[in-house]
Amino acid sequence: MHKHPTADYREPRCEKRPFPSYPVDQPGHRTMKIIATICCVIGVLLAAGCTHPENGITLSVGGAPAELDFWQSLVEQFEAQTNIRVDFLRQPTDTDQRRQGLVVALEAGTSDPDVFLMDVVWIAQFAASGWLAPLDEYAAEDRLDLDTYFSNILNLADRYHEHLIALPVYVDAGLLYYRSDLLDDLGVSHPPATWQQLAAYASRAQNTMIKAQPGFHGFVWQGAQYEGLICNFLEFAGSNGGGIFLQNGKILLNHRANLEALRFMRDLIHRYRLSPPSTYTEMREEQVRETFQQGNALFERNWPYAWPLHQQADSRVRGVTAIAPLPHFPGGQSVSTLGGWHVGISRFSDQKGLAWKLVAFLLSYDTQKQMALKLGWNPGRRDLYSDPEVLRNMPHLKRLEEVFQNARPRPTVPYYTQLSAVLQRYLNAALAGKLEPQAALEAAQKEAQRIVQRYHTNRPARH
Ligand code: GLC
Q: Using CA atoms, how far apart are residues 304 and 98, in angstroms rounded to an integer?
């Protein structure tokens, strides 16, 4: 928050509007994306340019509409408890757009937002850019018990040069949702263990259902050109022994296991027709969730946040949805991409003490419990995984603790965003049928190698 010349000076409060969430990747998608990005940027600049009362901070968070309403209620609780005013800056759902909005403010070194949520994959870059305030002293003063958190996640994402620079608000891992009633109808008693089984069940269900519901598809997942596609690709590829291999300044993408996985992803859309063509044009988390929730799919790949929404009163899949680990290729193992959102304080914040109070509130047992119960989010704190009330409401959580402990991270390198942008483009072109999977991986590897090279030429080797 900006400082004011006198304590009683008051500027009118900036009006914060929710960002529109556009259906992207339809015709005109690029234009939409550009407009959405401009909106993010304007939003952040507005926030930054706003003047606020002395005793206040700005929090920047994005997400699905239901999540943002919940955040608003959290902010109100915090204000009532502490008398610290929080301007809540609503960001879009899409992780890439959320990042762009924050980067503009941080590159400009503006003091707002003071506190923000970061996707686990941005933290390395934010830390290397010097945008995150070290939290060690605040944590020590508050006697924050770091053993409460998943140590693998903390070590992977939240420490930089021996400093604590972020803390996990919630952890995400990819899951398979399925319609238990429809599997029963097929006489199938277990969710699919392999992708081939998934395709076989999906095909049988689709053939039956499509007569009454022409929009019905066997399997919906995130294939649009954005970060979610990378998460999905790494699950298909990882469950076949593939992935993004980075070592000693070399990147390996064009790998047999990755090729088989990418072919299978493309075949799900074009050959088996079990996933709709909109998979590569518009399927992001919310589009996928809505399709499944309207009763239009047998299987869905999504994050844990979809669970309570599927159980809402108006959901067509309430009571007939179940969760399982994602399938794997024969001889492979189920892999879930590690996702999740972490909270940090801007190095440019001029209210770091107040900002920490908000961070501590967000990480408290009570707040995290509310997040679990109301949003189905999997807490960053491990002690909630044995809370009786949480377990009563989310019986699947106990099983998920293991999925989170073993979830596969994306590369934690400061240039991850650039790598991801290259991969997003080529993988999406392969899904759209514009490039053969082999050609897509070859080209992606070449371009990605140039990014890795540039980083290693400019800095001493670290990865
Ligand atoms: C979820 C995950 C995040 C991931 C994103 C991709 O929000 O928590 O880590 O990058 O989805 O869409």
A: 20
